[in-house]
Amino acid sequence: MKQIMIVIMLSIFTLGCAQKAPEVSKTQFSKEALNQKLEDENGKNISVQEILDQHKGKVLVIDFWAGWCRDCLKALPKAEELEKNNPNIDFVFFSLERSKEKFDGSLERFNMKEKENYWFSSGWENNFNKYIDLNWIPRYMVIDQKSGIAKYYAISPEDPEIQATIDKLLK
Description:
Pfam families: Thioredoxin_8. Residues 1-20 form the signal peptide. By secondary structure, this protein is α/β, with parallel strands linked by helices. It is 40% helix and 20% strand. The chain has a seven-stranded mixed β-sheet.
């Protein structure tokens, strides 16, 4: 009986914590989402709009992750493979670490220092994450050359739609 209860409890917990795909796939960012500030590795504030502007004219993949996220860490090798297989694509990493110290530590610990990294110093609850319906990580988005959202929702770098979207945008 005790084992059955444990299985039931774990099932409920697992179901309650799974990613849920957003009901609507958005193709553009709201003004509020674009104005959301993040911090770079040096502690400088930068808006999502400024980040997108730096990559205008290029296809961009945004990878949402954190060092405390087991699923994110499991996905890192496949994300690196996606990046390696797409040398003409830009990649940025949005961290959901809980502090600047944790952000810095995760960049060092997981060999992310050579990548373009930002973190939400405002925490998980912010205008950008709310707008994109971020309810779990890892999460991946593909942004087109005009800063529109080409692939709104993917939870694995192995999602074949990520590569298909990239290929379509590069034609």
